[in-house]
Amino acid sequence: FIEVQPNDGFGTLLPQETLEIDLIFGPKKAKEYNFQLCCKSGINRDFLLSCQGVGVRPPLVLSHSLVQFRPTAVGDKSPAIIYLTNQHTDCNQSKEPTTQLTKDVMKVDGPRLFCFCLPKDSEISISPSAGRLLPGERCLVQVMFRPRLLDHEIKEEALRQIHCAKLISEKEQEINRPTEQE
């Protein structure tokens, strides 16, 4: 549940040198974590680093994190289906969220809002792109891929084709020149 970067924590540190490392916390379970990392030097000195972290269950979960579309022709469309689920279960089934403070961790049970943000001019569309899920509720989300060619891409390809044709005709002329001279 912990990753040290760069180089998995291995490296060389010269005198008066500082090295910045990243500790990446990725818990597998929803619980409190207290642990120590040990940094060992080449001369068998140990430096202990105390760490604390809290793993929480994400309130909204996607059915899968990778969407693969079939090969799709320009101008055609390719759909994919994923599900978004609010994993929290609300005991009192009220529509108002209840907030609990559990060991310094804010936990909110209740409806969850979601919104998918796509890059500008994306070839992907998502429906519904925003909404609200009650505890235990699941929502079907349709992801649509519509590849298209932009005007500047068409112009760039046309210029490339013209340039290639010009190079080919120049090479043919060079090849034909010695024959004409003979």
TrEMBL record:
Pfam families under this entry?
Ig-CFAP74_4th (PF24798)
Q: Which InterPro entries match?
A: Ig-CFAP74_4th, Ig-like_fold
Q: Which Gene3D superfamilies match?
A: Immunoglobulins
- Signal peptide (from-to): none
Domain CFAP74 fourth Ig-like, chain residue ranges per copy: 1-55
Q: Where are the transmembrane segments?
A: none
Q: Which domain of life is it from?
A: Eukaryota
What name appears for this protein in its UniProt entry? CFAP74 fourth Ig-like domain-containing protein
Biological source species: Goodea atripinnis
